Sequence to fold (346 residues):
Amino acid sequence: MSCPEGHPSLGLLDQYSQGFMVSQVLFAACDLGVFDVLAEAPGPLGSEAVAAHLGTSSRGMELLLDTCVSLKLLQVETRGGKALYDNTELSSTYLVRSSPRSQRHMMLYLARTTYLCWAHLAQAVREGKNQYLKAFGVPSEQLFTAIYRSEGERLLFMQALQDVWSVQGSRVLAAFDLSPFPLICDLGGCSGALAKACVSLYPGCRVTVFDLPSVVQTAKDHFLSPEEGPISFQEGDFFKDPLPEADLYILARVLHDWPDERCSHLLARIHEACKPGGGVLVVESLLDPDGRGPLTTQLYSLNMLVQTEGRERTPAQYRALLAAAGFGDVQCKRTPGTYGAILARK
Fold:
Protein backbone atom coordinates (compact mmCIF):
# COMPACT_ATOMS: atom_id res chain seq x y z
CA MET A 1 0.00 0.00 0.00
CA SER A 2 1.43 3.38 -0.98
CA CYS A 3 0.94 6.35 1.31
CA PRO A 4 1.65 10.08 1.00
CA GLU A 5 5.18 11.01 2.01
CA GLY A 6 5.44 11.58 5.74
CA HIS A 7 2.38 9.46 6.53
CA PRO A 8 2.86 6.03 8.09
CA SER A 9 1.71 3.01 6.13
CA LEU A 10 -1.56 1.48 7.13
CA GLY A 11 -0.06 -1.95 6.54
CA LEU A 12 1.11 -2.34 10.11
CA LEU A 13 -2.25 -1.18 11.44
CA ASP A 14 -4.01 -3.69 9.19
CA GLN A 15 -1.68 -6.43 10.43
CA TYR A 16 -2.44 -5.63 14.05
CA SER A 17 -6.20 -5.15 13.67
CA GLN A 18 -6.61 -8.40 11.76
CA GLY A 19 -4.31 -10.48 13.94
CA PHE A 20 -7.29 -12.11 15.63
CA MET A 21 -8.28 -13.59 12.28
CA VAL A 22 -4.93 -15.36 12.00
CA SER A 23 -5.39 -16.83 15.48
CA GLN A 24 -8.86 -18.05 14.60
CA VAL A 25 -7.63 -19.75 11.41
CA LEU A 26 -5.07 -21.66 13.48
CA PHE A 27 -7.59 -22.47 16.20
CA ALA A 28 -10.29 -23.60 13.76
CA ALA A 29 -7.89 -25.89 11.88
CA CYS A 30 -6.84 -27.49 15.19
CA ASP A 31 -10.39 -27.78 16.48
CA LEU A 32 -11.67 -29.36 13.26
CA GLY A 33 -8.78 -31.81 13.09
CA VAL A 34 -7.35 -30.67 9.75
CA PHE A 35 -3.74 -31.44 10.63
CA ASP A 36 -4.60 -34.88 12.01
CA VAL A 37 -6.54 -35.90 8.90
CA LEU A 38 -3.65 -34.89 6.65
CA ALA A 39 -1.14 -36.66 8.90
CA GLU A 40 -3.11 -39.91 8.78
CA ALA A 41 -3.70 -39.84 5.01
CA PRO A 42 -1.39 -41.90 2.75
CA GLY A 43 -0.71 -38.77 0.68
CA PRO A 44 -1.85 -35.19 0.08
CA LEU A 45 -5.62 -34.62 -0.01
CA GLY A 46 -7.92 -32.29 -1.90
CA SER A 47 -10.21 -29.93 -0.02
CA GLU A 48 -13.26 -32.06 -0.86
CA ALA A 49 -11.67 -35.14 0.70
CA VAL A 50 -10.69 -33.22 3.85
CA ALA A 51 -14.19 -31.76 4.08
CA ALA A 52 -15.73 -35.23 3.69
CA HIS A 53 -13.50 -36.67 6.42
CA LEU A 54 -14.39 -33.88 8.83
CA GLY A 55 -18.03 -33.34 7.90
CA THR A 56 -17.65 -29.70 6.86
CA SER A 57 -18.72 -27.67 3.84
CA SER A 58 -16.44 -27.95 0.80
CA ARG A 59 -16.42 -24.18 0.29
CA GLY A 60 -15.49 -23.39 3.87
CA MET A 61 -12.77 -26.04 3.96
CA GLU A 62 -11.19 -24.82 0.72
CA LEU A 63 -11.02 -21.28 2.07
CA LEU A 64 -9.55 -22.49 5.36
CA LEU A 65 -6.92 -24.71 3.72
CA ASP A 66 -5.78 -22.01 1.29
CA THR A 67 -5.40 -19.54 4.15
CA CYS A 68 -3.38 -22.12 6.09
CA VAL A 69 -1.09 -22.39 3.07
CA SER A 70 -0.50 -18.62 3.14
CA LEU A 71 0.28 -18.91 6.86
CA LYS A 72 2.78 -21.73 6.14
CA LEU A 73 0.73 -24.14 8.23
CA LEU A 74 0.05 -26.25 5.13
CA GLN A 75 1.65 -26.77 1.73
CA VAL A 76 -0.11 -27.30 -1.58
CA GLU A 77 0.71 -28.83 -4.94
CA THR A 78 -1.36 -28.97 -8.11
CA ARG A 79 -1.86 -32.24 -9.96
CA GLY A 80 -4.05 -32.36 -13.04
CA GLY A 81 -5.49 -28.99 -12.15
CA LYS A 82 -6.47 -30.10 -8.64
CA ALA A 83 -5.03 -28.61 -5.43
CA LEU A 84 -3.69 -31.20 -2.98
CA TYR A 85 -2.81 -30.23 0.59
CA ASP A 86 -0.35 -31.61 3.13
CA ASN A 87 1.18 -30.61 6.45
CA THR A 88 4.34 -28.54 6.68
CA GLU A 89 7.17 -29.40 9.06
CA LEU A 90 5.76 -26.82 11.48
CA SER A 91 2.29 -28.37 11.62
CA SER A 92 3.61 -31.94 11.58
CA THR A 93 5.79 -31.19 14.60
CA TYR A 94 3.54 -28.97 16.69
CA LEU A 95 -0.08 -29.29 15.56
CA VAL A 96 -0.63 -33.00 14.85
CA ARG A 97 -2.19 -34.69 17.86
CA SER A 98 0.13 -37.73 17.78
CA SER A 99 3.39 -35.74 17.69
CA PRO A 100 5.38 -35.96 20.97
CA ARG A 101 5.93 -32.19 20.67
CA SER A 102 2.33 -31.37 19.83
CA GLN A 103 0.95 -28.04 21.09
CA ARG A 104 -2.61 -28.84 20.01
CA HIS A 105 -4.09 -28.82 23.51
CA MET A 106 -2.55 -25.42 24.18
CA MET A 107 -4.10 -24.13 20.94
CA LEU A 108 -7.50 -25.44 22.06
CA TYR A 109 -7.11 -23.87 25.51
CA LEU A 110 -6.18 -20.53 23.96
CA ALA A 111 -9.17 -20.76 21.62
CA ARG A 112 -11.78 -21.81 24.18
CA THR A 113 -10.67 -19.91 27.28
CA THR A 114 -7.95 -17.31 26.78
CA TYR A 115 -9.48 -15.84 23.61
CA LEU A 116 -12.81 -15.28 25.34
CA CYS A 117 -11.15 -13.50 28.28
CA TRP A 118 -9.23 -11.23 25.90
CA ALA A 119 -12.52 -10.00 24.44
CA HIS A 120 -12.79 -8.07 27.73
CA LEU A 121 -9.27 -6.62 27.82
CA ALA A 122 -10.46 -3.00 27.93
CA GLN A 123 -12.64 -3.80 30.95
CA ALA A 124 -9.73 -5.63 32.60
CA VAL A 125 -7.60 -2.52 32.18
CA ARG A 126 -10.37 -0.37 33.67
CA GLU A 127 -10.90 -2.67 36.66
CA GLY A 128 -7.40 -4.09 37.10
CA LYS A 129 -8.72 -7.62 37.50
CA ASN A 130 -9.39 -10.81 35.55
CA GLN A 131 -12.49 -11.31 33.43
CA TYR A 132 -13.85 -14.78 34.27
CA LEU A 133 -17.14 -13.32 35.46
CA LYS A 134 -17.81 -11.55 32.16
CA ALA A 135 -16.39 -14.29 29.93
CA PHE A 136 -17.87 -17.34 31.67
CA GLY A 137 -20.22 -16.09 34.38
CA VAL A 138 -18.09 -17.52 37.19
CA PRO A 139 -16.73 -15.47 40.12
CA SER A 140 -12.97 -15.45 40.57
CA GLU A 141 -12.45 -14.60 44.23
CA GLN A 142 -10.88 -18.06 44.45
CA LEU A 143 -8.70 -17.91 41.35
CA PHE A 144 -8.23 -21.60 40.61
CA THR A 145 -11.89 -22.35 41.29
CA ALA A 146 -12.53 -20.15 38.26
CA ILE A 147 -9.65 -21.58 36.23
CA TYR A 148 -10.73 -25.17 37.04
CA ARG A 149 -14.43 -24.33 36.69
CA SER A 150 -15.28 -27.76 35.26
CA GLU A 151 -13.64 -31.16 35.06
CA GLY A 152 -13.21 -30.75 31.29
CA GLU A 153 -11.65 -27.32 31.66
CA ARG A 154 -9.23 -28.59 34.32
CA LEU A 155 -8.17 -31.45 32.07
CA LEU A 156 -7.65 -29.17 29.06
CA PHE A 157 -5.58 -26.74 31.16
CA MET A 158 -3.39 -29.60 32.38
CA GLN A 159 -3.03 -30.99 28.85
CA ALA A 160 -2.01 -27.51 27.66
CA LEU A 161 0.75 -27.29 30.28
CA GLN A 162 1.82 -30.81 29.33
CA ASP A 163 2.29 -29.47 25.79
CA VAL A 164 4.38 -26.54 27.03
CA TRP A 165 6.79 -28.66 29.04
CA SER A 166 7.09 -31.31 26.33
CA VAL A 167 8.95 -28.67 24.30
CA GLN A 168 10.45 -26.33 26.89
CA GLY A 169 10.81 -28.41 30.04
CA SER A 170 14.28 -29.81 29.42
CA ARG A 171 15.58 -26.36 28.43
CA VAL A 172 14.67 -24.67 31.70
CA LEU A 173 15.75 -27.63 33.82
CA ALA A 174 19.15 -27.70 32.11
CA ALA A 175 19.76 -23.98 32.67
CA PHE A 176 21.46 -24.92 35.97
CA ASP A 177 22.98 -28.18 37.14
CA LEU A 178 20.31 -29.56 39.45
CA SER A 179 22.08 -32.84 40.19
CA PRO A 180 23.11 -31.65 43.70
CA PHE A 181 19.39 -31.66 44.61
CA PRO A 182 18.33 -35.33 44.84
CA LEU A 183 14.92 -34.60 46.39
CA ILE A 184 12.81 -32.12 44.42
CA CYS A 185 9.30 -30.81 44.96
CA ASP A 186 7.41 -29.30 42.03
CA LEU A 187 4.88 -26.96 43.64
CA GLY A 188 1.80 -26.59 41.47
CA GLY A 189 3.28 -29.30 39.25
CA CYS A 190 -0.06 -30.13 37.63
CA SER A 191 0.13 -33.26 35.42
CA GLY A 192 3.73 -34.08 36.34
CA ALA A 193 5.09 -33.18 32.90
CA LEU A 194 7.94 -31.07 34.27
CA ALA A 195 8.67 -33.72 36.89
CA LYS A 196 8.95 -36.29 34.11
CA ALA A 197 11.41 -34.07 32.24
CA CYS A 198 13.35 -33.61 35.48
CA VAL A 199 13.85 -37.32 36.22
CA SER A 200 14.78 -37.88 32.58
CA LEU A 201 17.47 -35.20 32.76
CA TYR A 202 18.60 -36.07 36.30
CA PRO A 203 18.09 -39.85 36.75
CA GLY A 204 19.27 -39.77 40.35
CA CYS A 205 16.55 -37.43 41.59
CA ARG A 206 13.10 -38.05 43.02
CA VAL A 207 10.29 -35.55 42.45
CA THR A 208 7.14 -34.91 44.46
CA VAL A 209 4.39 -33.12 42.56
CA PHE A 210 2.40 -31.01 45.04
CA ASP A 211 -0.96 -29.68 43.87
CA LEU A 212 -4.62 -29.29 44.74
CA PRO A 213 -6.59 -32.51 45.39
CA SER A 214 -8.68 -32.15 42.22
CA VAL A 215 -5.54 -31.70 40.12
CA VAL A 216 -3.82 -34.70 41.67
CA GLN A 217 -6.89 -36.83 40.99
CA THR A 218 -6.98 -35.72 37.35
CA ALA A 219 -3.27 -36.47 37.06
CA LYS A 220 -3.87 -39.98 38.42
CA ASP A 221 -6.75 -40.53 36.01
CA HIS A 222 -5.18 -39.14 32.83
CA PHE A 223 -1.42 -38.71 33.16
CA LEU A 224 1.30 -40.38 35.23
CA SER A 225 0.52 -43.11 37.72
CA PRO A 226 0.39 -41.70 41.27
CA GLU A 227 3.46 -43.64 42.41
CA GLU A 228 5.38 -44.19 39.19
CA GLY A 229 9.10 -44.72 39.85
CA PRO A 230 10.82 -41.58 41.11
CA ILE A 231 7.72 -39.38 40.73
CA SER A 232 5.03 -39.17 43.40
CA PHE A 233 2.01 -36.92 43.96
CA GLN A 234 0.89 -35.19 47.14
CA GLU A 235 -2.32 -33.23 47.66
CA GLY A 236 -2.31 -29.80 49.24
CA ASP A 237 -2.57 -26.04 48.96
CA PHE A 238 0.90 -24.48 48.90
CA PHE A 239 -0.39 -21.29 50.51
CA LYS A 240 -1.54 -22.99 53.71
CA ASP A 241 -0.69 -26.71 53.94
CA PRO A 242 2.67 -28.14 55.10
CA LEU A 243 5.08 -28.40 52.17
CA PRO A 244 6.79 -31.70 51.36
CA GLU A 245 10.41 -32.08 52.42
CA ALA A 246 12.80 -31.30 49.54
CA ASP A 247 16.29 -30.13 48.65
CA LEU A 248 14.89 -27.99 45.82
CA TYR A 249 11.46 -26.48 45.27
CA ILE A 250 10.33 -25.69 41.73
CA LEU A 251 7.87 -22.90 40.96
CA ALA A 252 7.19 -23.09 37.21
CA ARG A 253 4.59 -20.67 35.85
CA VAL A 254 3.31 -20.16 39.39
CA LEU A 255 4.47 -16.77 40.65
CA HIS A 256 3.15 -14.98 37.57
CA ASP A 257 -0.37 -15.93 38.69
CA TRP A 258 -0.18 -13.88 41.86
CA PRO A 259 0.40 -10.31 43.14
CA ASP A 260 3.59 -9.51 45.01
CA GLU A 261 2.10 -10.02 48.47
CA ARG A 262 0.93 -13.56 47.67
CA CYS A 263 4.30 -14.35 46.05
CA SER A 264 6.11 -13.07 49.15
CA HIS A 265 3.93 -15.24 51.40
CA LEU A 266 4.59 -18.34 49.32
CA LEU A 267 8.34 -17.74 49.04
CA ALA A 268 8.56 -17.18 52.81
CA ARG A 269 6.83 -20.54 53.38
CA ILE A 270 9.26 -22.23 51.01
CA HIS A 271 12.25 -20.61 52.74
CA GLU A 272 10.98 -21.86 56.09
CA ALA A 273 10.58 -25.41 54.74
CA CYS A 274 13.85 -25.36 52.83
CA LYS A 275 16.94 -27.08 54.20
CA PRO A 276 20.17 -25.05 54.62
CA GLY A 277 21.91 -25.25 51.25
CA GLY A 278 18.63 -26.07 49.55
CA GLY A 279 17.02 -23.83 47.02
CA VAL A 280 14.14 -22.75 44.84
CA LEU A 281 14.00 -22.74 41.05
CA VAL A 282 11.65 -20.15 39.55
CA VAL A 283 10.65 -20.68 35.91
CA GLU A 284 8.89 -17.76 34.25
CA SER A 285 8.84 -15.68 31.07
CA LEU A 286 11.12 -12.75 31.92
CA LEU A 287 10.62 -9.13 30.98
CA ASP A 288 13.54 -6.97 29.89
CA PRO A 289 15.02 -4.77 32.65
CA ASP A 290 12.89 -1.78 31.61
CA GLY A 291 9.74 -3.91 31.32
CA ARG A 292 9.18 -2.91 27.69
CA GLY A 293 9.98 -6.18 26.01
CA PRO A 294 10.13 -8.79 24.74
CA LEU A 295 6.72 -8.39 23.15
CA THR A 296 5.73 -12.01 23.82
CA THR A 297 6.29 -11.56 27.55
CA GLN A 298 4.45 -8.23 27.55
CA LEU A 299 1.47 -9.99 25.96
CA TYR A 300 1.77 -12.75 28.56
CA SER A 301 1.65 -10.07 31.25
CA LEU A 302 -1.57 -8.68 29.80
CA ASN A 303 -2.84 -12.25 29.75
CA MET A 304 -2.13 -12.45 33.47
CA LEU A 305 -4.33 -9.36 33.84
CA VAL A 306 -7.31 -10.91 32.03
CA GLN A 307 -6.88 -14.45 33.44
CA THR A 308 -5.14 -14.30 36.84
CA GLU A 309 -4.22 -11.95 39.69
CA GLY A 310 -0.57 -11.56 38.69
CA ARG A 311 1.85 -10.32 36.04
CA GLU A 312 5.14 -11.19 34.38
CA ARG A 313 8.21 -9.63 36.00
CA THR A 314 11.80 -8.58 35.35
CA PRO A 315 14.73 -10.57 36.79
CA ALA A 316 15.32 -7.71 39.24
CA GLN A 317 11.74 -7.94 40.51
CA TYR A 318 12.11 -11.68 41.09
CA ARG A 319 15.46 -11.10 42.81
CA ALA A 320 13.78 -8.63 45.17
CA LEU A 321 10.98 -11.06 46.03
CA LEU A 322 13.46 -13.87 46.68
CA ALA A 323 15.77 -11.69 48.76
CA ALA A 324 12.87 -10.45 50.89
CA ALA A 325 11.97 -14.08 51.62
CA GLY A 326 15.53 -14.76 52.82
CA PHE A 327 17.06 -16.43 49.76
CA GLY A 328 20.55 -15.54 48.58
CA ASP A 329 22.98 -16.38 45.77
CA VAL A 330 20.28 -15.58 43.20
CA GLN A 331 21.26 -16.52 39.65
CA CYS A 332 19.22 -15.86 36.52
CA LYS A 333 19.56 -17.44 33.09
CA ARG A 334 17.54 -16.95 29.94
CA THR A 335 16.99 -19.99 27.72
CA PRO A 336 16.49 -20.23 23.94
CA GLY A 337 12.76 -20.64 24.51
CA THR A 338 10.03 -18.55 26.11
CA TYR A 339 11.03 -19.14 29.73
CA GLY A 340 13.95 -18.15 31.88
CA ALA A 341 15.21 -19.85 35.04
CA ILE A 342 16.14 -18.28 38.39
CA LEU A 343 17.93 -20.34 41.03
CA ALA A 344 18.21 -19.10 44.62
CA ARG A 345 19.61 -20.81 47.71
CA LYS A 346 18.96 -20.72 51.41
Q: What stands out?
A: The chain has a mean pLDDT of 95. The chain has 16 helices and ten strands.
